[in-house]
Design brief:
alpha/beta, 9-stranded mixed β-sheet, 10 helices
Length: about 325
């Protein structure tokens, strides 16, 4: 039985509390939040929980095995650091930290303390993304040329982070997972239309070592609500549309075939348009999958699919993209060492 505590009972924290409280191998015992209304909600719906406003109560409790951190991003590093130093396993929501050096330190602490550090890159636990990864790794899509994603809607408007830091961790984590490599350069352009210095819309471009490209469109000021990712390969193309209720993956047997023995491009490139295949998926809740994975990693001493190093890679890209954003889209190189 894993004795668990949660720090942060906001909108997303409530979802984590709901999922962890339903797992059979979890003894969910303490919830921490600074807001009286949030604590009252937890008291009403989970009367068995001990409540506190001081996270130190959790760190000092030797019975607590693991801590789930779902507080504001600016507090992630300090809370995760304190939890690891007190000998706890840690699940922390995205982004892992707001600084590369802080993320590196958490990875170091994880190794030194031999604990599990898992980052809430939720979509890596989505059945559709798992299927997409299988399609790519099997070679069915062919060589991947480029990937692009859209994560846009009208609201919820944040005041403490821009659209890049709020939305991009999801897409960046998926892109790194699917391609199995890290970008070497990033450019980002955006504008703050609603609030000074808080970009509402951001366009991010990633360049990879072998000519692969990725493009990410992020906005909370858009007429559409879209959560879509497209992968273009040498054999086939795939679209993951998370707004679809059931047909979340569509495989397009489309492409451009190059025949040998011709001298001009017009002669040897032929376009191909075949069937559209919709594979059957068992659509389990990604958040439940994520929570189950965290507990499984603790019980069986496994490395999470979204471990601290995965979180660090995403923070590196976010930091470089923010630098490019502030410099009007100037390309920024990313060190992967």
């Amino acid at each position: 039985m894993i004795n668990l505590a949660v720090i942060g009972a906001g909108d997303w924290g409530k979802n984590l509390i709901r999922n962890f409280s339903q797992l059979p191998d979890v003894n969910f015992s303490i919830c921490c939040d600074l807001d009286d209304k949030r604590l009252q909600y937890i008291r009403t719906h989970y009367p068995q929980l001990k409540l506190t406003k001081d996270p130190q109560d959790i760190f000092n409790d030797a019975k607590i095995d693991a801590v789930v951190i779902c507080s504001s991003a600016v507090s992630h590093y300090q809370l995760a650091r304190a939890a690891l130093e007190s000998g706890k396993h840690v699940f922390v929501e995205k982004p892992l930290t707001l600084k590369v050096s802080d993320a590196e330190h958490l990875v170091k602490l994880t190794d030194e303390n031999k604990k599990v550090l898992m980052v809430g890159h939720l979509l890596k636990y989505h059945p559709a993304v798992t299927k997409l990864k299988t399609l790519i790794d099997s070679g069915e899509i062919g060589d991947i040329f480029y990937v692009y994603s859209q994560r846009v809607n009208l609201g919820k408007i944040r005041h403490d982070e821009n659209a890049l830091w709020s939305f991009a961790p999801h897409d960046l984590a998926i892109i790194l997972y699917l391609l199995g490599e890290e970008p070497v350069e990033v450019t980002a352009r955006g504008e703050a239309y609603l609030q000074p210095n808080i970009a509402d819309v951001v366009f991010v471009n990633l360049t990879f070592p072998d000519k692969k490209m990725a493009h990410v469109h992020l906005s909370w000021l858009d007429p559409h609500k879209e959560r879509k990712l497209t992968v273009v390969g040498s054999k086939k193309m795939v679209v993951f549309d998370d707004m679809e209720s059931s047909d979340k993956i569509k495989i397009y047997d489309k492409g451009a075939d190059r025949a040998p023995g011709y001298e001009t491009y017009a002669e040897y490139i032929t376009l191909r348009s075949g069937d559209v295949i919709i594979p059957a998926l068992k659509l389990t809740e990604p958040l439940k999958n994520e929570c189950l994975h965290f507990i499984d990693c603790i019980k069986n001493n496994k490395t999470p699919l979204s471990d601290g190093r995965d979180g660090l890679k995403v923070v590196k890209i976010l930091t470089a993209a923010q630098q490019s954003l502030e410099q009007g889209g100037k390309p920024v190189r990313i060190s992967n060492h």
